[in-house]
Design a protein that fits this description.
It is a single chain. This protein has 441 residues and is of the alpha/beta class. It has 19 helices and 13 strands. The protein has two domains: 208 residues, 3-Layer(aba) Sandwich (Rossmann fold), CATH 3.40.50.300; 221 residues, 3-Layer(aba) Sandwich (Rossmann fold), CATH 3.40.50. Helix 5 links the parallel strand 3 and strand 4. It starts with 9 loop residues before the first helix and ends with a helix. The C terminus is likely disordered.
């Protein structure tokens, strides 16, 4: 199927061509016709599947086809709620890109930054407002936002809204929106709480499910490591010896854990940074930008901060801590293997995380292959502590992204961490000499 066959108007088709779109993704193919017909939908779609275009295109087309005199002040006719600032920003950019030739105005509001510029934009008038719930309620209470003209309402990543405790705010906002509206609810997973919410928000909806949890992770190579808490960092360092791990997103459960892990990685010469709720918006944007441009090899993140991150060709996701929610595991996997690309994910599971692992396996309906790891075998034969002073001189060479993957041909035993400083040094010296020989050859 083509975009032309979806009855999309020419200006939007031109914009899609400009953005490099060739054929609609499954969620776009199923959702766009339904939304163009004015129906409500409950859609299961993971980040990276093109879901933003699936709801943005029908809204833009509907707004364009409505008659509105140029002399009239713009009023907010479409509202999109997103759980994070990063995702809200991306949705805003998508609306602007798809409506580039249609004079439809889209703005975004979220917390963590001064609201002065947001107030100015709202006073000038707009057609589409993308917002996080908290900041939107603040602006409503201050009299800057009028939702009485809303005809199109989108709740994006609804399951994350639930996880992050935003549903109470969402329900407050919904009460201010006209009941006669078209509502679109998108969620990566559809647990019972989402079905309950859908029954409250939607009318005669069409349910679309193109990415069940097991299908989302099916194209991603998953590996499981049983490891004690105190040995997780050593295991991560051991994995990072392999230069094929070029762009790695590591998930921790807490902000403190993220900061601590970054310090340890930096001490080994691994270029890393963290993003979480305690970081300013500017620092988060800077860290994400450096990660995308390959200046950073590892980005350590909490789930809330990582929500909505848009990174092309992310090679690996590592679950340093297993998530409290099985649905969150699916979201994490959605960071890699995006838009049909393959990806790889490593999960570390300590003794007290086995119940979390069981819930994940139940949701995705598949066992995660356990990796044979000599460091952390059942008998703990090879458990060692990596000494920073023994590897400091060579760490930059080991973790350099400039080192070609094709020269990483040492036998596996040659790159395992050894018990003594002397063996570590000799081992890494052997690795360096081998690379020199390859270069001469």
């Amino acid at each position: 199927m083509t975009f032309q066959e979806l009855n999309i108007i020419t200006p939007i088709l031109n914009a899609l061509t400009h953005e490099g779109y060739e054929v609609p993704s499954p969620i776009q193919e199923h959702a766009i016709p339904v939304l163009l017909n004015g129906r409500d939908i409950l859609a299961s779609a993971q980040t990276g599947t093109g879901k933003t275009a699936a709801f943005a295109i029908p809204i833009i087309q509907a707004l364009y086809q409505q008659e509105q005199r140029a002399s009239q002040k713009r009023v907010i006719q479409a509202l999109v709620l997103a759980p994070t600032r990063e995702l809200a920003d991306q949705i805003k950019e998508s609306f602007r890109n798809y409506s580039r030739d249609l004079h439809i105005k889209t703005e975004v509001v979220y917390g963590g930054v001064s609201q002065k510029n947001q107030e100015i934009a709202l006073k000038k008038g707009l057609d589409v407002l993308v917002a996080t719930p908290g900041r939107l309620l603040d602006l409503i209470n201050q009299g800057f936002v009028d939702l009485s003209h809303i005809s199109y309402f989108v709740l994006d990543e609804a399951d994350r809204m639930l996880d992050m405790g935003f549903i109470h705010d969402v329900k407050k906002i919904v009460k201010l929106i006209p009941s006669q509206r078209q509502t679109m609810l998108f969620s990566a997973t559809i647990p019972k709480d989402i079905l309950k919410l859908a029954s409250e928000l939607l009318k005669n909806e069409v349910r679309i499910e193109v990415t069940p949890p097991e299908a989302m992770v099916d194209k991603i190579k998953q590996s499981l490591f049983y490891v004690s808490k105190k040995e997780k960092t050593n295991l991560l360092i051991d994995l990072l010896v392999n230069p094929k791990l070029e762009s790695v997103l590591v998930f921790t459960r807490t902000k403190h854990g993220a900061n601590k892990l970054v310090k340890e990685l930096l001490s080994f010469g691994v270029k890393a940074d963290a993003i979480h709720g305690n970081k300013s918006q500017n620092k988060r944007i800077q860290a994400l930008g450096e990660f995308k441009s390959k200046k950073l090899r590892v980005l350590v993140a909490t789930d809330i901060a990582a929500r909505g991150i848009d990174i092309d060709e992310l090679s690996h996701v590592i679950n340093y801590d297993l998530p409290e929610s099985a649905e969150t595991y699916v979201h994490r996997m959605g960071r890699t293997g995006r838009a049909g690309l393959s990806g790889e994910a490593f999960s570390f599971c300590s003794q007290d995380e086995k119940n979390l692992l069981a819930a994940i396996v139940k949701l995705i309906k598949m066992e995660i292959p356990v990796v044979e790891n000599k460091l952390f075998s059942d008998k703990q034969k090879e458990v060692v502590n990596v000494k920073k002073d023994a590897t400091k001189d060579v760490s930059k060479k080991i973790y350099s992204k400039d080192q070609p993957s094709k020269k990483f041909n040492q036998p596996k035993e040659e790159i395992n961490w050894k018990k003594t400083k002397k063996k570590q040094s000799n081992n890494f010296q052997s690795y360096k000499n081998s690379n020199k020989s390859n270069k001469k050859a």
